[in-house]
């Protein structure tokens, strides 16, 4: 815990001292100044203007992530076509045009007598302006489509101010597909409108999902066995039909020419329908299905008692939740804690990412300039010989960075911030699991249910977890966070090396990713059960993990059966909740319910609230069912401990329910009241 706090303080201190979120909020001009920042020269100039947006189609943009042209902060985007040549030629008798054009020149420039060649070389003013509109605080051409033709201000061509007539498609290429983004913005506005008028009904749909999830959990004590056996009978019936169909096809092909050939005789065929004309194919299918059918039936025969125990534990879990209903709403606490962790990590990451100093680079019009892309100092740039060797070269802002020791280790700070984030998130999840396990363990170990259950079992368990088990939970979260960080690094390396042709490197990375994925799944399983043992006995993490692991290994078949039965029923419940509420929402939002036809809102896209309701319902069901899964896992470990610690005598009575007694065929010498 102390290590977590120390790492977090180091990252936060470095980020808040050197970071500057304004670099994310405001666009930056060629001089490293923020557009629209208060109490500066650019306070009223909130939009970034590109002198020559045609240069934004240059490959330099991909190299430096910066358009190689002068960028200026302006108060508004141009609303007309104009070229500097035309404006300068007429500035004496049309001063209004000059006054309008010069607001897009460099600050302080007001010398129309300067030759056009020198103005364009020094980039004092843009060679042209075109009708634009602001998007993400930058001026982009105001594209529109007229009769299927791309236009800007109803024109398909324009003068570039250098003696050429260009097509507006050149602007579209330079804007890098900005028209598609603008279309996406239009769709986004419509989606926002749909949310604005349907949010009330979306909340009602999620509330219905919550009620249905609660009912499903409560009714599991009566329907768990029925649902499971219906599914099993259905699977056996489907496989049985498959066996019959394969036999029918096998018998039907008898006597047909060519059907007695073997698969080896015809070899490999791209059209797999050829194999369906062979009797041998259907015979193989029939044998495989028969083997699967026999295996399932034998498993049901030999595992029948364990399946009955699993179903009984599911019913017991439903009963336990019925007594401790407050546990169903604990996921809200976990959600809030994780949201705080995400917010804190995001803010720190932004400060770290913006903690660099402005870096300026030489932007040259000539592709063969040897100084291109080299760093420069804007204050001394005009005194160097770069402008002589590369006429028209500019020392413009490129990005935020630095060469100091601190800037070299920003990536390390980001990794440390990510590691602490993973640690805190895993700790929040561990705290929730330990809290729920303690509440449900108090139910199981109560001699008389519900009389002996503590008054506030959830709050009592939460208090114990915070007061006594913080170190154990943090240690378990630390182990998991280390593995997850390694996985993140492997994904990063895989992304960086994706273009490499080294097959061995790709194979090694793939193996490492697979191994650490398996390790993470195993650790999550171990941690989950270790937290249950911590909640029951209060021992440290290592001791609890060891005892939980060996206890599960001694009951490995029961673990497998219970895990699969639980997974199936909870998955079925999630599908039923999300599907049922989704069907109801579909008929409502498409106005196919006559009773509510007048109440349904008029939408641009009915699928927007519909998908929101379906996904939200699934997440709501997942939140409730995760509590149920934790309840079943806790009761199972308690059940296994009960069997090993007690023998049903008067001195060591069982704490399990009467239904589990009957399944095990054991009787207590002095039975308790249930």
From TrEMBL:
Main subcellular location: membrane
Location within or outside the cell: Cell membrane
Signal peptide: 1-19
Pfam families: Choline_transpo
InterPro entries noted in UniProt: Choline_transptr-like
Membrane recorded as keyword: yes
Protein name, entry field: Choline transporter-like protein
Record organism: Chauna torquata (Southern screamer)
Gene name of this polypeptide: Slc44a5
């Amino acid at each position: 815990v102390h290590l977590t706090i120390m790492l977090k303080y180091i990252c936060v201190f470095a980020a808040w001292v050197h970071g500057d979120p304004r670099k994310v909020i405001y666009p930056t001009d060629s001089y490293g100044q923020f557009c629209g920042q208060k109490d500066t020269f650019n306070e009223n100039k909130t939009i970034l203007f590109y002198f020559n947006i045609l240069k934004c189609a240059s490959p330099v943009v991909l190299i430096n992530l910066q358009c190689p042209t002068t960028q200026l902060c302006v108060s508004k985007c141009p609303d007309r076509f104009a070229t500097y040549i035309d404006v300068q030629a007429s500035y004496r008798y049309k001063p209004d045009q000059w006054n309008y054009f010069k607001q897009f020149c460099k600050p302080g420039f007001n010398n129309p007598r300067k030759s056009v060649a020198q103005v364009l070389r020094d980039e004092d003013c843009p060679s042209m302006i075109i009708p634009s509109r602001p998007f993400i605080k930058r001026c982009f051409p105001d594209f529109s489509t007229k009769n299927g033709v791309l236009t800007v201000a109803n024109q398909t061509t324009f003068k570039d101010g250098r003696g050429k007539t260009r097509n507006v498609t050149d602007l579209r290429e330079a804007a890098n597909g900005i028209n598609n983004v603008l279309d996406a913005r239009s769709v986004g506005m419509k989606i926002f409108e749909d949310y604005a008028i349907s949010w009330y009904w979306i909340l009602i749909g999620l509330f219905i999902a919550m009620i249905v999830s609660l009912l499903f959990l409560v009714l599991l004590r009566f329907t768990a066995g029925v649902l499971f056996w219906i599914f099993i009978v259905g699977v056996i019936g489907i496989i049985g039909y498959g066996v019959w169909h394969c036999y029918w096809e096998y018998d039907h092909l008898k006597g047909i020419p060519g059907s007695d050939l073997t698969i080896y005789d015809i070899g490999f065929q791209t059209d797999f329908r050829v194999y369906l004309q062979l009797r041998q194919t259907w015979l193989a299918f029939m044998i495989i299905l028969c083997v699967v059918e026999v295996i399932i039936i034998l498993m049901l025969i030999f595992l029948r008692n364990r399946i009955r125990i699993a179903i009984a534990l599911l019913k017991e879990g439903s009963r336990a939740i019925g007594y401790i209903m407050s546990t169903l709403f604990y996921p809200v606490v976990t959600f809030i804690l994780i949201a705080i962790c995400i917010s804190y990590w995001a803010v720190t990451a932004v400060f770290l990412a913006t903690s660099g100093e402005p870096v300026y680079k030489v932007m040259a019009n000539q592709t063969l300039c040897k100084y291109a892309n080299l760093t420069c100092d804007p204050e001394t740039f005009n005194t160097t010989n770069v402008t002589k060797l590369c006429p028209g070269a500019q020392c413009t802002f490129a990005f935020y960075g630095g060469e100091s020791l601190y800037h070299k280790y920003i990536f390390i700070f980001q990794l440390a911030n990510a590691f602490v984030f993973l640690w805190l998130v895993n700790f929040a999840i561990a705290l929730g699991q330990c809290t729920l396990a303690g509440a449900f363990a108090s139910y199981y170990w109560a001699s008389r249910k519900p009389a002996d259950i503590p008054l506030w079992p959830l709050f009592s368990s939460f208090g114990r977890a915070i007061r006594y088990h913080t170190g154990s939970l943090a240690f378990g979260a630390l182990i998991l966070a280390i593995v997850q960080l390694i996985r993140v690094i492997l994904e990063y390396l895989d992304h960086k090396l994706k273009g490499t042709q080294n097959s061995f490197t790709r194979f090694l990375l793939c193996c490492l990713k697979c191994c650490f994925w398996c390790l993470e799944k195993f650790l999550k399983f171990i941690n989950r059960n270790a937290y249950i043992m911590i909640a029951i006995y209060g021992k440290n993490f290592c001791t609890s993990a060891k005892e939980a692991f060996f206890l599960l290994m001694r009951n490995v078949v029961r673990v497998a059966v219970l895990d699969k039965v639980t997974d199936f029923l909870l998955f079925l419940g999630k599908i039923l909740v999300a599907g049922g509420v989704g069907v109801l929402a579909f008929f409502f939002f498409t106005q196919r319910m006559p009773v509510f036809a007048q109440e349904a809102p008029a939408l641009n896209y009915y699928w927007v609230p519909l998908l929101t309701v379906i996904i939200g319902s699934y997440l709501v069901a997942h939140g409730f069912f995760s509590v149920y899964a934790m309840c079943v896992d806790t009761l199972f470990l308690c059940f296994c401990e009960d069997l090993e610690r007690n023998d049903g005598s008067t001195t060591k009575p069982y704490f399990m329910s009467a239904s589990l007694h009957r399944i095990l065929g054991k009787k207590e010498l002095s039975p308790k009241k249930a």
